[in-house]
User: Fold this.
Amino acid sequence: MFRITAGRRHPLARYAVLLFALVLAGSVYTLTALGDQSADAAIATGKVDDVAEGEKLFEAHCMSCHGTDAVGTAAGPTLVGVGAAAVDFQMSSGRMPAATYSGAQALRKPLPEWVTPEKIRQIGAYVQSLGGGPTVPTKADVSTEGADMAKGGELFRANCISCHNWVGAGGALTEGKFAPPLNEATPEQIYEAMITGPQAMPVFNDSVISPQEKRDMIAYIVGVRNQTDPGGFGLGRIGPVTEGLVAWIAGISALALAAIWITAKKRQTND
Amino acid sequence: MSTPTAVPKPIAGTSGWLDDRLGAGNFLKRNMRKIFPDHWSFLLGEIALYSFIILLLTGTFLTFWFKPSMGHVIYDGPYEPLKGVMVSEAYASSLHISFEVRGGLLMRQIHHWAALLFIAGMMVHMLRVFFTGAYRKPRELNWIIGVLLLSLALFEGLTGYSLPDDLLSGAGLRITQGVAISLPLVGTYISFFLFGGEYPGEDVISRFYTLHILLIPGILVALVTAHMILMWVQKHTQMPGKGRTEQNVVGAPFYPAFMAKAGAYFLFTFAVLAGLGTFAQINPIWLFGPYTPADISAGSQPDFYMGFLEGSLRIMPAWEINVLGYTIPLSVIIPALVPLGIVMTGLALYPFLERWITGDNREHHIADRPRNNPVRTSIGMAGITFYGVLWLLGANDEISANFQISLYATTWFGRIAIFVLPAIAYVVTYRMCLGLQRKDADIIGHGVESGVIQRLPHGEFIEVHVPPAEDIEAHMRGKEAIPMIDGAEASETDGVPPRGLRGPVGRLRARMSQAYGGEKIPLDAGHGNGHGDGHGEHHAAIGSGTGDDKSLTH
Assistant:
């Protein structure tokens, strides 16, 4: 204790205190932010009255924007024909219900209490009953078993990265819209996004990209995002922007400090 | 320390042998004791120098395995997500270096980090030289060499960045081709000449390879050598201070003091580069994928030093002119050439413009403190802001995507900020310089706060001010008035201005000279006790404190 007190007027003491405070704040945040529930869209076994249950849920949670019988209002588009896949994508990623949303497009966010895989399935069944549409992919549809990663990569580069970036880090679009990062998307969500075309995204139906090719792409996206960066810290994998920041903030700053330190060392002379 | 008695025989023998044949003894005797002034900012250029050495070494390593060919091969290496994909030989060999050659990825990463620090080092060095006026006579030519080095380094970076033939660098290459082809009249020819036909052709990688590893580095080495020799011959500038004049250099001798510091600084640079190369991934070409002209990625960015060109391209409105069936794409020509022209030409011409405006034809070996030349410093800060806005806007898609700001909002911010912020930076810097000059004048005039509070007999409390430390005062007193052209001041009041200041150009020159030159805040102004009394005891300060001097009483 005495040694700490003695050092409190040391020139480096204020930096040490600052660093300590930053580390403390960071650790507390990391620990408290850990309890983030994952949006697992696994679907339980079906019930007979899913459609009826789904209609009730729809009326309670969705109708104010999407209108009676999901025909749409000024606040929300019609859901007739969008299919259960669209419902599962939007709800399992937390984009819907979007009661508080304002801006160019809905954001991925933590799910509300009441949104469970079962409730999503029931609303999906109701929307599916209104006018058909793409259905939720099965486990086999998104299985990456035997998928060709390299082929998927080529398709991914040809079709996806112009908005989503080469590793799916996301990117900006026009009018405040954006392509979200793919880091949190589950294989089911990736598949559903391709067949339903949510927000600004175009539809990649089975005649454009076959189901097998979709599985290849999912294999590539998931495989690359789980890959350990061989070169050290990935710096967000967004390329030269963060690299340039590191070169200046870490590189030039460190060398400027080294220069100051070196020149501060004066030879002791007697004259 | 033991006193040296005799030189050991092995050393005396060898050096004698060499001296008899090379006559190096005289040369060394003269140069090993060369004095170098000590200031941390004088080492910034060495970041670039040492990075360049490391670039040459790591680059040589990379050439042992790199194949500068655009021939198609099927990738069959250990990186699973690309297995079986058709790639160019250049890309395949870069992956080979990254994943199969022992130490290859580390070398690639150090090489790339060194490239960034090479140019960043040049930039900070150049800013130091600019803001201290170290480019003034007799060093204008060395300044020009520096501007050439920076321009060449940008080109060297561009060619090297393109070599791995990955998707990201291909986007940069495509923009380069777009700029080339947008040039009026010659654009198409230049593009076809550069790429050996239609873009992308089969030649550009091997041509860039020759430029990158032979031609440009050769010129760089020559210019760096010239830069160093000129610096050596002309001697380094020094900051103003005690005993420092225009005729001497105060500092440490090259051997041993400066050599040890320079050597240590090389090791620091190497350590930073090795550390970055080890711990921070750079240019992960395996994630980008091979280049095909059909693919483009969101977030495609150039390396930082090209960011300002990227930014100017991004904020430029889509203007074009059609003349006689030919299209002149202003939306490409203007952003590609105008900011680059402003920055590089402005840098190259600045010493000559300043000399023209101030009429200052003297040699300068004592550097200016930035505050003491407010116009220059403000122009520099306006330039940094101009460059900085463009640089920032080069990353506007990443800013937009990561901070949830509309992309269009960032574009419009840039379009306005590019004109407004440099002007604001100019004014703010100018006021700050004058404020700092006033602070100096205050310290010279009144001394510095001693922390001692005295109570006077009639009850008043004052803080005793003491004269500034001798070296600090000498540093401040290094300030001198910025010269003006003879007669510039008189030209407006007297009837006939002197020759050379007549006519519109002459009058402009006179006005600029008046704004640029002169002493804005004299160090000793307005204080009768200022000059000699700086060294007086504190009762002198007390005496003045009770009277006109409010800053002493709190």
